[in-house]
Amino acid sequence: MLQVLSLVTPIFGLIALGFFSMRWGYLSEGSGRAVTELGFKVAMPALLFRAMLGVGEVAVSPLRLAVTYLVSVALVWALSAFAARVLLGRPPADRPVFGMAATFGNGVMLGFPVIVSAFGPEAGTPLAILAVCDTIILWLIGTLHMEVALRDSRGLGVRAVVDVLRGVARNPLIVALAAGALCRWLGLTLEGLPPVPARLVELVAQAGVPVSLLGLGMSLAGYRIKGETSAMALIIGIKLVVMPAVGLILATWVFGLPPLWAGVITVFLAMPVGANAFLFASRYDRAVAPVSASVALSTLLAVVTVTLALLALQAQGDMGMP
Fold first, then answer.
1. Is 277 a member of any domain?
2. How confident is the model at residue 112 (pLDDT cuts 50, 70, 90)?
3. What's this model's pTM, rounded to 2 decimal places?
4. CA torsion angle for 239, 242, 244, 249 (degrees, to 10)?
5. What are the backbone dihedrals phi and psi of residue 288, each rounded to the nearest 5 degrees, phi first?
6. Does some domain include residue 101?
7. What's the structural domain count of the chain?
8. Residue 99: its pLDDT value, please?
9. pLDDT at residue 153 in the model
10. Within a domain: residue 229?
11. What is the extent of the structural domain holding 9?
12. Does any domain span residue 44?
C-alpha cells in the first residue's frame, strides 16, 4: 500500500499545486491556458514520440486491445445513455453528452503519468494504442450519436464526421504517435537519432509529466461544482466505477489480454472525466453544467478511486504491477 501511495501522492500533489496556484491568485489569469497548451501541444507529444521509438516486440495483436477498448466503450456508452433517459428523463440530444462524459477520461494528461509510474516503460505500447483509440473512436461515436439525436431538425451530417476526422488528423498527440510509429517501422530508435535531436526530444519529453499535471490542476480551477447533483453523480459513478470494472472483466475473462495490458487498460479506463467531454458538451450546448462539475469533482475523487484500483491490481499479483 505504501508503494502505491508513494506513487500517486506526488502525481496528485502536482495537480493540487497547479489548482491552488490559480485559485489563490499566485499565478496570473490566463497562465493556466498557456501551461495546458504547452503540455498538450509540445511536452506530451514529445513524450509520446519517445514512447513510440522505444516500442519493442508486441506481446499480442494490438487489435485485441483496441477491440477490448471499443467493446468497453460501447457497453458503458449505452448504459449511460439509457440511464440518462430512464433515471433522469433527459431528452435525446443530452444522451450523447452523458455517453461522452462517462467514457472519455483524462487518459493522457493524467493517465500516462500514473500508468507509466505504476507499470514502468513497458506500458508505453498499450498506452499508445489506447491514446489513438481514445481520441478517434470517442469523437466519432459522440458525433454520430449527436447527429442521429438531432436528425429531425438537421439530418445526419456527413460534414460533421469529416470535421471530426480532420480535427483528429491535426491533433498533436495523434501526429506524435504517427510520427513515432513511422520512425519505429523504419527501424529508428531514440539511440539511433543524432545526439542533438535525441537530447532535445529527451529534454522536452521529461517536461511532459510535470507540465501536464500542473496544467491540469490550473485548468481545474476554472470549473465549478454546482447544480444538477443527480446528473453529476450518474456520470461520475459510471466513469470511476463501472467503466474500469467493465474493462477489467473484458480484458481478463473475455479477450484474454496479457496481465500488463489488462492492468493498463483498467487504470486507463479508471481515469476521471476528461476535459474533452466538457468541450463536446459546450460544442452542442447540452448538459454543460453537470459535465463541467463532473470534470472537477471526478478528478478530486480519483485520488481515492485510482489508488484503490492500483491496490486491487497489486493485490492480484498477476496484473503487471511490481
1. yes
2. confident
3. 0.87
4. -160
5. -70, -45
6. yes
7. 1
8. 95
9. 47
10. yes
11. 2-316
12. yes
Residues 272-278: what's their mean pLDDT?
90
What pLDDT score was predicted for residue 178?
85
Q: Which residues contact 321 (CB under 8 A, 6 or more apart)?
A: 118, 119, 263, 310, 313, 314
Whichever domain contains 112, its CATH number is 1.20.1530.20
pLDDT tens readout for residues 60-92: 788 999 999 999 999 999 999 999 999 999 999
Predicted local distance difference test score (pLDDT) of residue 158: 66
